[in-house]
């Protein structure tokens, strides 16, 4: 059972895509509602949006299994990330819209939660942590870009329409100030896409757990509003033309991140 796809790069940048997976084991899918089996809360096509990152030398880890099975961007104890806001659980029982994921009486219990953590969540994070440490040891530091997307309007989770680009840095704690300022400026200078920094999405478990700039690991979460690159209708296909402008901006962002990395790289003495 392959839980994720991984390609190693030769730069200090790792792009992580934890919510684009669509696989559900058959025995679990049989307990889900027909609407939930359509996986409406998937980060649709995010792995395809960032496919260029591999060509830039970034490492890339992409989950194969759905967030409905286990949410890789939640802590294993299922502690709330945004107290006071509706909770999206580790093994969610409801969709973002508040609809049941499972048929009556079929939701996973605490024992099943722990099994999913052991089988799906922990191996993913063990590999991610090991790769980050490998890059940090090789380059002296590492940048984790946690790539996400969500429907532009989800009334249960936030009011109104979400900005196109939602940068999360745990209120500036998960990366160096200069890196945060660099990415913020590029987003703000876009004439096409709206943006916000540390707004409704300040970074989930991954950004908060791995973002330790004092230890050489800088983490940023980019939450894209899906309306910026696709038709937000059930069953929509990936449209390269619709996504081209956003993809170009994302490429500019990661190019700038790599330039920031190059400025931090240890200089080799020629004496």
What does this protein structure show overall?
The chain is an alpha/beta fold and 271 residues long. Strands 1-3-2-4-7-5-6 form a 7-stranded mixed β-sheet. It starts with a strand and ends in a 7-residue tail after the last helix. The protein has one domain: 3-Layer(aba) Sandwich (Aminopeptidase), CATH 3.40.630.40. The chain is built from 8 helices and 7 strands, in the order ββααααβαββαβαβα. Helix 6 (177-188) links the parallel strand 5 (165-168) and strand 6.
Short description:
With 271 residues, the protein is of the alpha/beta class. The protein contains eight helices and seven strands; from the N terminus they run ββααααβαββαβαβα.
Q: How many discrete domains?
A: 1
What is the assigned CATH homologous superfamily? Zn-dependent exopeptidases
Cα end-to-end separation: 51 Å
- Strand content is 5-15%
| Count of individual beta strands | 7
What characteristic shape results from the CA principal axes? globular
Mind describing the biggest β-sheet?
7 strands, mixed
CATH architecture: 3-Layer(aba) Sandwich
Task: Quote the average pLDDT.
Answer: 95
Q: At the third CATH level, what is the topology name?
A: Aminopeptidase
Radius of gyration: 18 Å
Following the backbone from N to C, one meets helices and strands in this order, namely EEHHHHEHEEHEHEH
Helix content: 25-40%
Count up the helices: 8
Structural class: alpha/beta
Low-confidence runs: none
Assign the CATH class: Alpha Beta
**Largest beta sheet: strand ordering:** 1-3-2-4-7-5-6
Strand and helix map with partners:
Elements: E1 4-7, E2 13-17, H1 26-29, H2 34-37, H3 46-49, H4 52-55, E3 59-63, H5 110-139, E4 142-150, E5 165-168, H6 177-188, E6 195-197, H7 205-210, E7 217-225, H8 240-264
Helix pairs in contact: 6-8
């Amino acid at each position: 059972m392959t839980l994720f796809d991984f390609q190693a790069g030769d730069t200090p940048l790792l792009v992580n895509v934890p919510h684009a997976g669509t696989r559900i084991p058959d025995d679990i899918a049989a307990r889900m509602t027909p609407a939930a089996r359509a996986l409406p809360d998937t980060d649709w096509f995010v792995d395809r949006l960032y496919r260029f990152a591999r060509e830039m030398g970034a490492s890339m880890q992409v989950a194969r299994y759905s967030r409905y099975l286990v949410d890789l961007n939640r802590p294993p104890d299922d502690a709330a990330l945004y107290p006071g806001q509706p909770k999206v659980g580790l093994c969610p029982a409801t969709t973002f819209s508040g609809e049941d994921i499972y048929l009556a009486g079929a939701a996973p219990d605490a024992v099943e939660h722990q099994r999913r953590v052991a089988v799906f969540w922990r191996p993913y994070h063990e590999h991610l942590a090991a790769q980050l440490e490998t890059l940090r040891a090789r380059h002296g530091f590492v940048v984790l870009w946690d790539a996400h997307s969500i429907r532009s309007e989800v009334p249960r989770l936030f009011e109104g329409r979400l900005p196109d680009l939602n940068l999360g840095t745990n209120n500036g704690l998960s990366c160096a100030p200069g890196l945060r300022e660099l990415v913020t400026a590029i987003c703000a200078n876009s004439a096409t896409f709206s943006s916000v920094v540390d707004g409704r999405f300040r970074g989930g478990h991954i950004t908060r757990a791995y973002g330790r700039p004092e230890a050489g690991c800088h983490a940023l979460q980019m939450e894209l509003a899906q309306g910026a690159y696709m038709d937000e209708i059930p069953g929509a296909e990936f449209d390269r033309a619709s996504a081209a402008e956003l993809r170009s901006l994302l490429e500019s962002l990661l190019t700038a991140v790599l330039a920031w990395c190059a400025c931090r790289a240890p200089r080799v003495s020629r004496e």
